[in-house]
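Subject: design request, 664 residues
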């Protein structure tokens, strides 16, 4: 049977009605901006841009402009002055580096704040990862807890870093998972979350338009940035050229800046990326606007997106914490693909610098595809090596570990002797003391019992079972109305400097006043009479739970003495905050470096059969000990026994591995 479409009078009637409604809407919308009057004004005032109907003129200006400045927002804001660190180029445009994601259209919803939040992150993902992604503005519009919607909002970067939707989700959502509807849809969470930013900050030092140079530096350092502007009818009808119909009214619109050119306009122009569709402006949704025009740049903010690594670097035998003086150190490296990345075999390199000198790049030795051994060069006592690894994927893109290399590197220094001044996993009482005026949540040692559902750690850090944590009870047991203090026993560093390591947990992102408190760590060299601050954790960074390791040198803060103490302060000074903290795996270690030849047990200056005899007499006949003792531990087992003698004989007579060559 053949199917045919049925058309009756009622269908035609409703089609006509819908067409009339659409025509009426278009006629009304098209009349939102009097473009003819604007063109006359442009001629009278000498505008250096053209105006006319475009994808934005079908809406009212009120529908398009939804940036609402919160009251007193600067009081709790994090500012970065973005002081220029070099001579800034006279022209810069991120579009010259890559094809940025296409401009979007917010439609008749005042969600510019969401588009100006998502836009810089999408651009940064393209710049850092080479991927064009489409992220959901609708998730910000519908799922934020600040009351922002199509009637207006503010920068929502927090939701891409730590702030959660109603289901506890943080981070970006793909457009395909919550498509944009230009309306106040209900939040249908949970959604998959894909990208997180490291941090974000306002540019400048106060709630104003930052200097041109500070904005430029922010764009150079952090990619395209979010800024406010005062949009008027002339901006709405802008079709190209240099915008100079400036107004000093209150900001009302959120946009993105991608670059600048000092040679255009009166004193220079910004390249502004809008969210009014690719049929607005020039170059598919962009504008050139004079510096200082219409408050452009007000409340500028940038996001720090670290990038998504497409190659993974792993170290089967770990990375060395120290190296033996005077001996090269091998490091095994395995490179594999993640996030659809594929490593290019044979491309692995190690890059190192000794004592801050010129970086040397060396190909790693490949035993099989993408399995390498890197050789760190020999260094003497008093020197150090900074190093990082790199490899290419099959598209010839270079990835490094650490990811931010060469700005961030690994480092090691030579040490022949390791002496432990303190090591504590808190399974037993080693003499720590607890004090403070907190009404609840005092430090407590034990196996965590809270389950981790209220900011507390569910388990300890090192797997031994116990740690110190704030009030080890289930449910409402966080720090309240004061400070709880944990102080270490006295640590004797009369012999010199030491490295302090500890793992810490901190959560302050729950309750009525999240991200308001800090976790303080101090050190004293006079038995607690005076304290030097080592770090203040939070209020946002590393303050949403999770174990983090910290390492510092004692001499960076105080002179080493026999009366060293550590102190951990957790205050709750804001009503309604849920504050939880924990400490685990504390160690204070002295690394000593003596110039000696490993295997030269008798101190003759060379390694020969006499050293084997010396070790045999030490092991079996109570002979003199090697000096230092580490010269006899040639197999790096930490014990001197017959295995060391066998190892040494193999080296001397059979071409075996050099003494201590396997030590890391």
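Subject: RE: design request

Done. Sequence follows.
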């Amino acid at each position: 049977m053949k199917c045919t479409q049925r058309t009756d009078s009622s269908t035609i009637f409703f089609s006509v009605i819908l067409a009339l409604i659409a025509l009426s809407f278009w006629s009304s919308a098209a009349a939102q901006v009097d473009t003819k009057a604007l063109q006359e004004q442009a001629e009278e005032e000498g505008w250096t841009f053209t105006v006319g109907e475009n994808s934005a003129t079908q809406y009212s200006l009120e529908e398009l402009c939804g940036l609402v400045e919160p009251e007193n927002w600067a009081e709790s804001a994090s500012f970065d002055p973005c002081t220029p660190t070099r001579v800034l180029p006279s022209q810069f445009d991120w579009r010259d580096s890559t094809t940025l994601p296409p401009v979007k259209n917010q439609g008749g919803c005042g969600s510019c704040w969401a588009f100006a939040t998502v836009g810089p992150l999408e651009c940064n993902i393209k710049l850092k990862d080479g991927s064009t992604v489409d992220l959901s503005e609708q998730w910000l519009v519908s799922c934020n807890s600040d009351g922002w919607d199509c009637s207006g909002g503010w920068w929502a970067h927090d939701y891409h870093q730590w702030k959660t939707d109603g289901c506890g989700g943080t981070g970006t959502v793909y457009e395909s998972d919550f498509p944009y509807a230009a309306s106040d849809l209900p939040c249908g969470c949970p959604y998959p979350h894909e990208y997180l930013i490291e941090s974000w900050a306002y540019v400048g030092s106060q709630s104003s338009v930052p200097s041109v140079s500070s904005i430029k530096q922010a764009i150079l350092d952090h990619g395209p940035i979010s800024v406010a502007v005062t949009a008027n009818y002339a901006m709405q009808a802008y079709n190209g050229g240099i915008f100079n119909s400036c107004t000093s009214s209150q900001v009302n619109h959120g946009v993105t800046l991608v670059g600048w050119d000092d040679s255009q306009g009166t004193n220079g122009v910004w390249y502004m990326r809008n969210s009014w569709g690719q049929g607005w402006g020039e170059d598919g949704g962009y504008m050139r606007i004079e510096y200082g025009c219409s408050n452009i740049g007000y409340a500028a903010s940038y996001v720090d997106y670290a990038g998504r690594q497409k190659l993974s670097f792993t170290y089967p035998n770990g990375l060395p914490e120290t190296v033996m003086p005077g001996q090269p150190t091998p490091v095994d490296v395995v490179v594999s693909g993640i996030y659809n990345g594929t490593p290019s075999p044979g491309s692995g390199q190690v890059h190192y610098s000794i004592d801050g000198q010129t970086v040397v790049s060396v190909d790693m030795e490949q035993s099989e595809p993408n399995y390498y051994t890197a050789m760190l060069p020999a260094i003497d006592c008093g020197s150090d090596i900074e190093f990082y690894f790199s490899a290419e994927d099959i598209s010839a893109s270079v990835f490094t570990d650490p990811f931010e290399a060469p700005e961030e590197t690994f480092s090691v220094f030579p040490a022949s002797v390791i002496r432990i001044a303190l090591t504590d996993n808190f399974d037993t009482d080693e003499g720590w003391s607890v004090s403070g005026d907190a009404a609840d949540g005092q430090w407590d040692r034990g196996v965590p019992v809270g389950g981790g559902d209220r900011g507390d750690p569910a388990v300890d850090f090192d797997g031994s079972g116990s740690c110190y944590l704030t009030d080890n009870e289930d449910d409402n047991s966080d720090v309240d109305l004061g400070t709880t203090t944990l102080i270490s026993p006295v640590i004797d560093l009369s012999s010199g400097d030491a490295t302090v390591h500890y793992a810490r947990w901190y959560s302050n992102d729950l309750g009525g006043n999240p991200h308001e408190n800090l976790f303080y760590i101090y050190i004293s060299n006079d038995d607690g009479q005076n304290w030097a601050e080592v770090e203040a954790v939070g209020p946002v960074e590393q303050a949403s739970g999770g174990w983090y390791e910290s390492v510092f040198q004692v001499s960076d803060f105080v002179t080493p003495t026999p009366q060293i103490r550590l102190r951990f302060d957790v205050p709750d000074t804001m009503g309604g905050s849920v504050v939880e903290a924990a400490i685990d795996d504390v160690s204070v270690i002295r690394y000593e470096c003596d110039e000696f030849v490993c295997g030269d047990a008798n101190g003759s200056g060379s390694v020969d059969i006499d050293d084997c005899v010396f070790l045999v007499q030490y092991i079996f006949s109570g002979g003199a000990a090697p000096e230092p003792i580490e010269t006899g531990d040639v197999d790096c087992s930490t014990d001197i026994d017959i295995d060391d003698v066998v190892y040494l004989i193999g080296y001397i007579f059979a071409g075996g591995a050099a003494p201590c060559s396997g030590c890391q």
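Residues 311-415 form a domain with the Immunoglobulin-like fold (CATH 2.60.40.10).
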